[in-house]
């Protein structure tokens, strides 16, 4: 015979994407992966720029001209910000590997701290590039 279960809470019919909020730890994790991929491609760009600058005196001028443009400076600032987050988030990951910040509260806190430190480093990178 069938067994009747009383459902007190309505079951979700579909996922309402407008009401789903990612926890800050999930955002920290996604951004860490994205910053790692950006850092990976940055290595190619920066090595190309370095080799151009070392190729000849006119190559150096060409590289200096590239770095002088607003667009290039903006990209360099973005690269430095991604690297900053990747290192700060990476250190947070390594600390978690050592069993720190593994609880919900401390994990949320360390994610916020990582974003805060990155914001400061990003402002410093802006000053360095300009
Ligand atoms: C050229 C430099 C670097 C590149 C291209 C790079 C790239 C990446 C990529 C693509 C991932 C995989 C992310 C994922 O699958 O979620 C990763 C993970 C990681 N990176 Fe880097 N990385 C670099 C430097 C660093 C540095 C300096 C640190 C120092 C803290 C670091 C710490 C980590 C850690 C701890 C992970 C693993 C995170 C996890 O367990 O999800 N990385 N990196």
Topology, pairings included?
Elements: H1 24-55, H2 57-68, H3 70-97, H4 104-129
Helix pairs in contact: 1-2, 1-3, 3-4
The structure holds protoporphyrin IX containing FE.
Binding site for heme: 86
Pathway: Carbohydrate metabolism; tricarboxylic acid cycle
GO molecular function: electron transfer activity; metal ion binding
Model description:
It is a multi-pass membrane protein. Its cofactor is heme. The chain crosses the membrane at residues 30-50, 70-88, 109-129. Belongs to the cytochrome b560 family. One of its GO terms (biological process) is tricarboxylic acid cycle. By secondary structure, the chain is an all-alpha fold. It has a single domain (36-129), classed as Up-down Bundle (3 helical TM bundles of succinate and fumarate reductases), CATH 1.20.1300.10. The chain is 75% helix and 0% strand. The chain is built from four helices and no strands. 13% of the residues are buried. Bound molecules: protoporphyrin IX containing FE. Protoporphyrin IX containing FE binds at residues 33, 36-37, 39-40, 43, 86-87, 90-91, 93-94.
Number of domains: 1
Report the principal-axis shape.
elongated
Percentage of residues in helical conformation: over 70%
Bound molecules: protoporphyrin IX containing FE
């Amino acid at each position: 015979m069938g067994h009747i279960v009383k459902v007190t809470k309505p079951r979700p019919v579909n996922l309402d994407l407008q009401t789903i909020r990612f926890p800050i730890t999930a955002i920290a994790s996604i951004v860490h992966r994205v910053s790692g991929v950006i850092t990976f491609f940055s290595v190619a760009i920066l090595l190309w720029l370095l080799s151009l600058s070392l190729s000849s005196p006119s190559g150096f001028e060409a590289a200096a001209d590239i770095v002088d443009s607003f667009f290039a400076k903006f990209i360099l600032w973005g690269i430095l910000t991604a690297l900053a987050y990747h290192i700060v988030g990476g250190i947070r990951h390594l600390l978690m590997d050592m069993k720190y910040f593994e609880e919900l509260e401390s994990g949320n806190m360390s994610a916020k701290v990582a974003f805060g430190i990155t914001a400061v480093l990003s402002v410093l990178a802006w000053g360095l590039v300009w």
